[in-house]
Every structure is written in C-alpha cells, then in structure tokens.
TrEMBL record:
It comes from Sitophilus oryzae (Rice weevil). It holds the Pfam family SET. SUPFAM superfamilies: SET domain. PANTHER family: SET DOMAIN-CONTAINING PROTEIN 4 (PTHR13271:SF151), UNCHARACTERIZED PUTATIVE METHYLTRANSFERASE (PTHR13271). InterPro entries: SET_dom, SET_dom_sf, SETD3_SETD6_MTase, SETD4_SET. This is SET domain-containing protein 4. GO terms for molecular function: protein-lysine N-methyltransferase activity. Residues 42-279 form the SET domain. The gene is LOC115876797.
Length: 437
C-alpha cells in the first residue's frame, strides 16, 4: 500500500464522516463540561465514522504530547459519586455488589430523573439503545453460538441476571425516586438496568481503586464485593478503541485539583480520528465486551486446550509428561497461536507432546532453548491444529448462517464468524511459510 493510496483512503474516510458538533446532545455536553472547568483547547470535534461509529477528531493539527482532554475528577462517576449520592441507603441487608452493578444502578436512576439529574447532559450523550453485545441476546439464540463464545456469553449473562436480581431484591420497598416519588424498585425495570449495565461495560475506564476509596465514606465501602476500579468519564468515553492508539490516559494533579487527562503520543493530522486502547484484547473479547471486532487485530489469536491438542495430534501422554504439563499449569490458559507466533504455553505443551524422551523438560522450556528441529515440527503441528479449528469454525459459521432466526446479535455474530474463518486461513498460510517461529 503506497503513501498516496493511504492519503486518499484517509481523505475518503474524513469525507464520509459526519460532523456531530452541531447536534444538540454534543453542544449541551460540551457546554456542560465547559461550565465545569473543561477547556476544549484541542478543538475536539465529534464525528460519525462509517466503521467505528461516533468518535473524536480535532479541527486542527495536534502535536505529540498535547493534552486532548482534562476532565476534573468531580465529573467522573465513581464509587465515591454513588456513595455520596445517598442511593446506597436504599439498599437493605448485608448484600454486597460489584462496582459494575453499583455504577449501573446509579446511571439507571439518573437517566430516569431526566432534567432533574445533575448528569442529564452527560446521560443524554450516551447511546440509546445500548450497543449490541452477543450475550445480551436473551432469546434461546445463544444455543447457536460456537462453544467458546457460548460459554463466555453464558457467564456474562449469568453475572448480569444475578446482579440485577440481587439488586432488585435488596432495594428497600419504601424507597422512592426523588423526582417522581415512584418506588425505586418499580423504576428499575430490567431493560433500563440492561441499558445501564451494557453502557458501564462498554464505556467504563480504569481508575485507581485506592484513590476512589480515599474519596468515599468508610461506612459505605462494605457494600463493595470487588475493587472500585471502574469509572465513567464524560467525553473520554467517546473515544473509540484501537490496539495502536497513539494516546495515553492518566490521573494528574494540577493546582491541588485532580484531573483525568488524555495526551497524544504522536502528531495527528487535522480530522484524523483519535483512539484510546481499551486493552490488548483479542477479537472475541472485543466482540463480547464491546460489540465490535477489528480485522487484522494484532492481538487476535486462536486458543486450544490440551484435550484437543492430544486428540488432533494423536498423542498419548505418559503420566510423567502429563504431570509436567499439569504441575506448571501450561494447559490452564494462554495456549494459543497468533499471527506468526505460538504462545509460551503452546510451545511448552507441543514440545512435551512431540518429544517424549526428554529427561529434563524444565531446562528446555524455561530457558526457551528448544532443539533446532522443533521449529519445523511445531509449525507442522500448528498447521494440523489450525486445519482442525478451521473445519469447526466453518461448521459454526454454517450453523449461524443457515438459521431462520433473526436478531441483531446473530447478524453481528455471523459477520464475526465469517471474518474468523479468513483469519485462520491467513494464519494457516503464514505457518506454511518456511522460517516462521
Ligand atoms: C467507549 S464507547 C466509544 C464511543 C462510541 N462510539 C459512542 O458513540 O459513544 C465504546 C463503544 O464504541 C464502539 N467502538 C469503539 N471502538 C470501536 C472500533 N474500533 N470499531 C467499531 N466500534 C467501536 C463500540 O460500540 C463500543 O461498545
């Protein structure tokens, strides 16, 4: 791909994006932020992009290490915000809740309060309906999902259902909404809670839990079942994800005031979209937690488990070799292949499988000094394993494509499964090349 091609592509992308700065939700959000010590010094502009949806650019060129946003701490929604709001006093009993559930409870009730909420301009800027995540398909469609995606979807769904039920059953029956005097239990219906829960899932950023605890009331802390490391940060949550995001976020102190700050790590052209990195996530994680995937994602990988490796490679493991793998938990997680590379655990498992007579596996595996002939043998094994996965993935994709059932969730999954086949085919091609590690 030449420079001129990339330049034209970028221009086409800018031309097809739509400026959202004139929309009332954007104007109101920026006005509200301006009124609370936020300076739009980087001339940020919200635009709708064809692939990523709404995202952020600037009307001017931005230099490396420039500040994109600096949001004062009191505009972040953290456990301390929920604690100080008095909402937790509506919860009776000794039940404890995750920070995810508590933030969801808070924004659900604030959404219901409409204009009487301090957060109304922020809440109006949030997407409604919420993004489509495969596990929020509440029909029986989850049965059609491939094994790996179905297992994870069920886990997400169980956590959501459990959190929702526990919260609703713990809210004091007499507790009323401050704005409409309806009971909070009746206000918090499942679809409102789902909206809030998915938004927290897709938009919360990491915050140092110790900092949050230092800003909270000691009495309220006992309601937490995990660390309060999630926060909603207006405007920061308009940035889309890329694994190569050229930005860095941090909490900083300026003249005694704490801010959540985002800076650039490189120069940006006018109207180039800014990204942040949500983490080194593979595409299945992006799909399940955020409702999208990125073709060519460098963090994408194909996972295997010991049972299928042994079956596909037709290996019989003696007790000594099996125990070695188990003792070091090599088969527990991170047994994967990604573009041009096998993970540490994958290499270890394959080595033990195909070299039965090594006396000291520890010495080889932990020094990463494998015999020279292992590389070619490993690549051949990986090719066989990928061919096996490809057959399964084709069947999975066929199952989803041929169903007469319809939902946004299923069509998202269908697109993803088709992409996943292409991804494994590319990997197979790469592992067929000589000199691949
Ligand atoms: C933190 S929000 C980012 C802003 C969001 N686009 C909006 O309109 O408010 C995260 C959501 O944005 C979308 N998103 C983020 N990065 C994306 C990407 N690289 N490609 C497609 N969608 C993306 C997904 O719907 C995700 O759940």
């Amino acid at each position: 791909m030449g420079r001129t091609y990339r330049k034209r592509k970028r221009k086409r992308c800018q031309a097809s994006s739509i400026n959202l700065n004139h929309e009332s939700t954007t104007i109101n959000l920026l006005k509200w932020l301006n009124g609370h010590d936020f300076l739009n010094s980087a001339a940020l502009e919200l635009r709708h992009f064809p692939i990523t949806g709404r995202g952020i650019t600037s009307r001017k060129c931005v230099k490396e290490n420039d500040v994109l946003i600096r949001i004062p701490m009191e505009l972040l929604i953290t456990f301390a915000t929920v604690d100080k709001s008095g909402l937790l006093q509506c919860i009776r009993g000794q039940n404890s809740f995750s920070i995810h559930v508590l933030l969801s409870f808070f924004i659900a009730i604030e959404k219901h309060k409409k204009e009487s909420s301090f957060w109304v301009k922020y809440i109006q800027s949030l997407p409604d309906p919420e993004p489509v995540l495969p596990w929020t398909d509440f029909s029986d469609n989850i049965q059609l999902f491939p094994d790996d995606i179905r297992a994870k979807s069920r886990k997400f769904l169980d956590e959501f259902n459990e959190g929702c039920l526990k919260l609703k059953s713990s809210i004091n029956d007499q507790a009323l909404c401050q704005c409409c005097k309806k009971t909070l239990v009746s206000v918090l219906d499942k679809s409102l809670f789902r909206w809030a829960y998915v938004l927290v899932n897709t938009r919360a950023v990491y915050i140092d839990p110790q900092l949050v605890l230092s800003m909270s009331d000691e009495e309220g802390i006992s309601i937490l079942s995990d660390k309060p490391s999630m926060a909603l940060c207006p405007l920061l949550d308009m940035f889309n994800h890329h694994y190569m995001a050229g930005t860095n976020a941090d909490v900083i102190q300026d003249k005694g005031q704490l801010y959540y700050e985002l800076r650039t790590l490189r120069n940006y052209k006018k109207h180039e979209q800014f990204f942040i990195c949500y983490g080194s996530h593979d595409n299945v994680r992006l799909l399940l937690e955020y409702g999208f995937f990125i073709p060519g994602n460098v963090n994408d990988c194909v996972y295997f488990n010991l049972k299928e490796i042994v079956k596909v490679l037709n290996v019989s493991l003696c007790e000594r070799r099996y125990k070695f793998i188990k003792r070091h938990q090599f088969d527990d997680k991170d047994v994967y292949v990604r573009l041009c590379e096998a993970s540490f655990n994958m290499k270890a498992v394959l080595f033990v499988c195909v070299f039965p007579n090594v006396l000291n596996y520890d010495a080889v595996v932990f020094s990463d000094c494998y015999p020279s002939e292992f590389r070619q043998i490993m690549n051949d094994c990986i090719k066989t394993l990928l061919e096996y996965k490809l057959c399964i993935m084709k069947e999975d994709s066929e199952k989803v494509s041929s169903t007469l059932l319809q939902s946004k969730h299923l069509s998202l999954l269908k697109t993803f499964l088709e992409y996943r086949i292409e991804f494994v085919e590319t990997m197979l091609y790469q592992f067929s090349e000589p000199n691949i590690t």
